[in-house]
Design brief:
Elements (H helix, E strand, L loop, with lengths): L3 H12 L4 E2 L5 H8 L6 E3 L2 E3 L2 E6 L3 H7 L17 E2 L1 H11 L3 E5 L9 H21 L4 E3 L8 H13 L5 E4 L2 E2 L2 E2 L6 H10 L2 E4 L8 H4 L5 H4 L1 H15 L2 H4 L4 E4 L10 H10 L22 E3 L5 H11 L4 E2 L14 H4 L6 H16 L4
Parallel strand pairs: 4-6, 6-7, 8-11, 11-12, 12-13, 13-14
Antiparallel strand pairs: 1-5, 2-3, 9-10
Helix pairs in contact: 1-5, 3-5, 6-7
Length: about 375
């Protein structure tokens, strides 16, 4: 039986085999970050230990086992040749970004695979994540991977990840091989997450059905489809009553929750305008827009004005810092939070650190 002590003991040896997905960190970004060390982050003279809840990695062993060619794990964007980053390089990058702690996750590429193969991929990833976090407990935490296409197995994996491996919850896609997260088959997984107090980090995988319309200029398969798929997932969890069934479930949505927080009030009117489009057997306990205040959202919305709007919709207490690193969406994720003149110092400290620390049970 593997325990947390096992991972601490194995961590030093394992760390040398760790690689991170660079996902586009090109020489220009290295040059930008090499100029200054941005840690520590301070707020009116007070030291803030920042937590980035949205950062990615993967492991060669899992990629090799999957049978997919390695380029699949390095998107065709600038810097793909630098997709693998050594641990010390990652730590230096975090320092330059003003990030004390990264909460690592791996986007699920295994949902469409045979359950036994997916189980092996997940086992390797969770063990490697646990080893890395044990080796650098002051710099890394992680969300586990789950074999969600086999919910009974996912329940066991989640319990092992939280109780024995010290992981903080699980990173999941917005759907599982075309099945929505609100499907009853996943209820045992959400029940276990609620029981454990484990966070479920929803990261979108896109909307493959729209590939034709999203083709062309602008990388719309990511620019538009990723926020859309998160919006769809959250809407199903709300309208199908999943959040009523599991009121203690801790759900964290990537990319500021997609489009849903920007137009949440429309959800309150849909079933009033078109009752035929809604299921009369699903009676929600509150207005659809009110469920946003029991969810959590990362701050990857790019500007202080966008943060202001997200705060107005969901509340400052529901927002935590996220960068999507090593993707180059927001290389200095604390800046647009610190620049929010409408936030109190306590609210800024919450977004940068305190809310995530409490949510993930991190000791800073």
């Amino acid at each position: 039986m593997l325990t947390r002590r096992h991972f601490v003991k194995a961590a030093a040896a394992a760390t040398t085999g760790i690689v991170f997905c660079g996902c586009g960190l090109h020489p220009a970004a290295h040059a930008q970050e090499a100029g200054a060390r941005r840690l520590p982050v301070t707020l009116n003279g007070r030291r803030i230990k920042t937590i980035d809840v949205h950062s990615h990695c993967f492991f060669r062993e899992a990629a090799s086992l999957s049978g997919d060619p390695m380029p699949r794990f390095t998107p065709p964007i600038k810097g793909a040749s630098e997709a693998f980053i050594e641990i010390e390089t990652r730590l230096k990058a975090m320092d330059a970004q003003g990030v004390d702690v990264e909460v690592l996750s791996i986007n699920p590429f295994w949902y469409g695979k045979d359950a036994d193969l997916a189980r092996q991929i997940v086992r390797i990833q969770n063990e490697k994540l646990a080893e890395l976090c044990a080796a650098h407990p002051d710099r890394f935490a992680a969300f586990a991977s789950l074999t969600l296409q086999a919910p009974e197995l996912a329940v066991q994996e989640l319990e092992t990840a939280v109780k024995r491996q010290g992981l903080r919850g699980a990173a999941i896609g917005d759907a599982v091989a075309g099945v929505e997260l609100s499907d009853p088959k996943f209820h045992p997984v959400w029940a276990k997450a609620e029981e454990l107090g484990a966070v479920l980090f929803i990261h979108p995988l896109g909307v493959g059905e729209l590939a034709k319309r999203l083709s062309g200029n602008g990388w719309l398969t990511n620019t538009i489809a990723h926020p859309l798929s998160t919006s769809i997932a959250l809407s199903h969890l709300i309208f199908e009553g999943t959040l009523d069934r599991f009121p203690g479930l801790k759900v964290l949505a990537a990319h500021g929750g997609g489009y849903l927080p920007s137009y949440a009030d429309r959800s309150d009117h849909a079933c009033l305008v078109s009752p035929a489009g809604c299921n009369p057997n699903v009676v929600l306990k509150k207005k659809p827009s009110e469920y946003l205040k029991q969810l959590y959202f990362d701050s990857l919305v790019f500007s202080s004005e966008a943060v202001r709007h997200l705060v107005a919709q969901v509340g400052a207490s529901q927002i935590v810092m996220g960068s999507d690193y090593p993707y180059q969406w927001q290389l200095h994720p604390a800046d647009h939070i610190l620049g929010c003149s409408f936030l109190s110092d306590d609210e800024k400290a919450g977004m940068l650190s305190n809310t995530a620390a409490k949510l993930l049970n991190l000791q800073l």
